[in-house]
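Support case: calcium ion complex. Customer-provided input:
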Amino acid sequence: MSADSILLVEDEPEIREMLSFSLVRAGFEVIEADSAETALARLQGTPPKLLIIDWRLPGMSGVDLVRRLRRDPATSELPLIMLTARGEESDKLTGFDAGIDDYVVKPFSPRELIARVKSLLRRAGNPADGKMAAGPIEVDTRAHRVTVEGTRVAVGPLEFRLLEQLMRWPDRAFDRAQLLDRVWGRNIFVEERTVDVHILRLRKALAPFGADRCIETVRGIGYRFVAEESEWGARDDE
Ligand code: CA
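Agent response - structure generated as follows:
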């Protein structure tokens, strides 16, 4: 069995070595890069399972690297954690907007980073069997099957892809344009309102099982997946 590989992009040698050492000890294979440019060269081969990217890099910044990776279909879905020295809300949002899945604020312990890595890999699903689970819902991306607590739920192909997209990044709010890009594809002209129509269908399919509340409306933005029943708020149907 080969170890999950992680591409670590960090210019400061002490931090890179320390993180690399901890990740290897935790059972991962680490590919190191000291700049965004080196990282792009390393990504020409077999893609890693996950990327850890420092925000502040010489040359191309970490955030610009993320934007570039998200535009490329070959790397657009790779799980990605940002290392940042900034804790401000606006920077966090810039990062999420660029396409990061999670972030860790410096200084942090290697243990914290490894916990985030493992959690993100679990959320991102296991490509080996194509199965994802969050809250009461299980999705089999190979068989195109949705089950809620073991009971099969029939959903249409677009609803399936919407659910898969939202479930892959629980708690992350996607706006309608992002969902159109990721579910319908770029260069396809569909009105943003179409997303609402399919979200409604998805909720209807999940409602008999009480799982429709996993799909939450985020006012002024779009939608997000909420796995935990304790976090289900009053849904805001517009
Ligand atoms: Ca740095």
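The chain has a mean pLDDT of 87.

Case will auto-close in a few days if no follow-up is received.
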